[in-house]
Amino acid sequence: MNNKYNCFDTGTLQLKCTNGTYVYVNPTAVETGQLQDLYVSGIPPAPAAIAVAILTTTLSDILQLEKKEAQGKTFVINGHISEVHAYKEWYYKACPACHQCVYEKKSGWYCTRDENLVKPSNMFRLPATITDGTGNIEATVFDKVARYLLNKTCDELLEMSNPVDAFLKIENQETQYHIQI
Ligand SMILES: [Zn+2]
Fold first, then answer.
1. Ranges for the Replication factor A C-terminal domain (predicted)?
2. Residue 166 alpha carbon to ligand 1 centre in Å
3. Residues with Cβ within 5 Å of ion ligand 1?
4. pTM
């Protein structure tokens, strides 16, 4: 299995520029949204609503699976970020409406869905190592998860004098990750 992974939060679809196996953490999928609601509310959805098997597992077990065994399944791990690679690019310019990447024009910005924008938002895309004690994955933690961990929006963090200092505080914070391959 390729060693490059991709973490998704809900609501943001990202372009990925490497080939290989993608691991999606907290992907945008109906059942993931329902699971997150369940996690927050404790109220289970209708039985028919969860169509895929949800398996709580470990990173080492996931990493040992053949690609075709793992594809299409959702795994839940309890893990934490062991390191945020803050020397890499850790945020991007996004459309405030749909959270897609936007393109800079001569004047202003452009979203392929919402067209012309005056001002984009900044959104998190943290390159990080996630571990659960059994294995590590190199992943990208997207905006919703990063906002939850940091308790700040990306715009708020960028207003601070040393924004990357905040990343030290989220390392080792235990979180449940939904992984889809
Ligand atoms: Zn948009």
1. 77-165
2. 28
3. 95, 97-98, 111, 113-114
4. 0.65
